[in-house]
Amino acid sequence: MPRSTHAFFAAAVLAASLSPVAALAQAAPAPAAQPPAQAQPAIQPSDTQLQKFAVASQKVAMVADEYRPKLQAAKDDAAREKVYREADEKMVKMVNADGLTVDEFNGIGQAVEQDPQLRQRVIEMAKKNAPAGSAPQ
Helix H segments across 74-115? Predict the structure, then answer.
């Protein structure tokens, strides 16, 4: 059941964009390229799943931030692959600890990416979960 490390790490980078600081930096609405009826979310997550995703995505974002410089410093493909594997293992543990499978996390991530209203709900949930003093200035 090997998962593509790169696919999960990419999902983690998406999750990083949902952290409250990044979310506020990206708060400008994207131009509507398609009518909403054409962009059906991959799944319809429950409020509980969204809450778990918001918490897990913040943790995953921290791991992504931690490993991004390590990836950039990797000298060759083997070193990059090792960093990807380390980051992937850490992220999977965090996602599982928050009560989601990797498939659920990725599915919710896709739904959030496709549905601006879901994205806003997750951003609001993430803001409520942010530790004191981590708000943007």
Answer: 77-97, 102-114
Model pTM score: 0.68
Integer Cα distance of 61 and 63 in angstroms: 5
The Cα-based distances of 68 to 7, 26, 64, 121 in angstroms read: 15, 19, 6, 27
For 16, other C-beta atoms within 10 Å of its C-beta total: 19
Distance CA(6)–CA(71), nearest Å, equals: 12
Residue type (1 letter), 49: Q
The rounded distance, in Å, linking the Cα atoms of 40 and 69 is 35
CA distance 132 to 127: 10
Q: Give the pLDDT confidence of 13-68 residue by residue, as tens digits.
A: 555 554 443 333 333 333 333 334 444 545 789 999 999 999 999 999 899 999 99
